[in-house]
Write a structure and sequence with these properties.
Blueprint: H1 2-44, E1 47-59, E2 79-91, E3 99-107, H2 111-115, E4 125-136, E5 142-150, H3 172-177, E6 181-190, E7 195-202, E8 216-223, E9 229-239, E10 248-259, E11 264-275, E12 285-297, E13 302-313, E14 323-337, E15 340-351, E16 356-358, E17 361-363, E18 365-376
Antiparallel strand pairs: 1-2, 1-18, 2-3, 3-4, 4-5, 5-6, 6-7, 7-8, 8-9, 9-10, 10-11, 11-12, 12-13, 13-14, 14-15, 15-18, 16-17
Length: about 375
């Protein structure tokens, strides 16, 4: 009886102890869970994407050097290549007060070594973009980027997970009329729902480290007047030659696109550039060109794009030859599944001079066939 009584009187104490332990355990677990959730939320803001492009090019001129003349990334004839593999790591910043970053690392046989900025020589690797972004709480939100970023000039772009061109090969305008990237400060502000203005102060053209003591200044005005239409005007000005602070280079660039419907899109690009005292007899070197793009989405999986282009390098300041270049490119595109793109290019280049290598000699024409596979993930 005494033992039973003792058991009876001790049960409430044991229950209270168990309840206290359970409450304490739940409290600690809740704190740990809150910590895990906080970390999960932080990691969820980091976005990782990838992009891979592989190609093959054949030049009917059969150049002895096995090089396609006047091309940008598709320079190698009769060769399979991994053009670029990109790993994109970023923390998006979309609202006023947000801080984010963009970090794109690329490797490959074509894009990195051509588009790489001087002063950032790391072989076949390149930091395609790397900048920090802050959206200041000013009006609609003032976006400030500091670091390296692709140029806002031009219709075509350096391909990556966030976009690829309608043609496999790049235009003359992309390769010779405008820069690839900039390193410096870029500030953008949405003046309205339809108009965004951007200004930048940068080292110059494709310079991770400046090659002189002057900076280049650029600006863009992007207008979306109606749904499906985009108009961009760009201008950049500043000295670009090594250890030269006076011979200014300038380019005015206009690009526009209009999607008439889901099937048909028209694109246009025009450039006019000049560089002081770099032409023969100390005159100003000038270049200009225009390109038109016609894209037809025949089905949800198949598209066709035609590009026609005219480029004039009046003094040879950009291509090394005083010439007029033309090209016509037809690109069929097939998308068998999400994230996979199969394309081909049939391209004819012509010049006012014999600048294209052909079987031990030179010609004013160059016909190439290209195949390309893109994987976006």
């Amino acid at each position: 009886m005494i033992r039973q009584h003792a058991l009876k009187t001790s049960r409430p104490r044991i229950s209270l102890f168990v309840i206290a332990v359970l409450l304490l355990t739940n409290s600690v677990a809740a704190q740990d869970t809150a910590g895990v959730e906080k970390k999960a939320i932080w990691y969820d803001t980091i976005v990782i994407n990838g992009f891979t492009s592989a190609s093959f090019s054949y030049n009917t001129n059969v150049p002895d050097s096995r090089k396609n003349q006047m091309r940008v990334f598709d320079t190698d004839d009769n060769s399979f290549k991994i053009d670029v593999i990109e790993l994109a790591l970023q923390k998006p910043a979309t609202n006023p007060g947000d801080v984010g970053f963009c970090f794109h690392l690329t490797a490959g046989s074509s894009v990195p070594k051509v588009a790489r900025s001087s002063g950032l020589d790391i072989g076949d690797l390149d930091f395609h973009q790397m900048y920090v972004r802050y959206i200041a709480k000013v009006g609609r939100g003032l976006t400030i980027d500091f670091g390296k970023f692709v140029t806002p000039l031009g219709y075509e772009l350096i391909e990556g997970y966030d976009g690829y061109n309608d043609n496999v090969t790049r235009s003359f305008l992309f390769g010779y009329a405008i820069p690839f990237t900039h390193t410096g400060v870029r500030v953008g502000y949405p003046m309205s729902d339809a108009i965004t203005a951007t200004v930048m102060i940068v080292n110059g053209w494709d310079n991770a480290i400046d090659n002189n003591r002057s900076k280049s200044v650029g600006g863009q005005l992007m207008i979306v007047p109606v749904t499906g239409m985009t108009l961009c005007t760009n201008y950049i000005f500043g000295p670009e030659l090594n250890e030269n602070n006076s011979n200014n280079r300038s380019v005015a660039d206009v690009s526009a696109s209009y999607a008439f419907n889901e099937r048909f899109t028209l694109g246009l690009n025009a450039d006019y550039g000049a560089e002081q005292r770099t032409a023969p007899n100390g005159k100003t070197a000038k270049w200009n060109g225009v390109a038109a793009y016609f894209r037809l989405n025949a089905t949800t999986r198949f598209s066709m794009t035609l590009r026609a282009e005219h480029f004039e390098d009046h003094d040879g300041g950009r291509t090394g030859f005083a010439q007029r270049l033309h090209e016509f490119t037809l690109t069929p595109e097939f998308r068998p599944t999400e994230g996979l793109v199969l394309r081909g290019d049939i391209r004819l280049d012509t010049s006012s001079g014999n600048v294209f290598e052909k079987r031990g000699g030179f010609s004013d024409k160059q016909l190439t066939f290209s195949a390309n596979m893109i994987f976006i993930y």
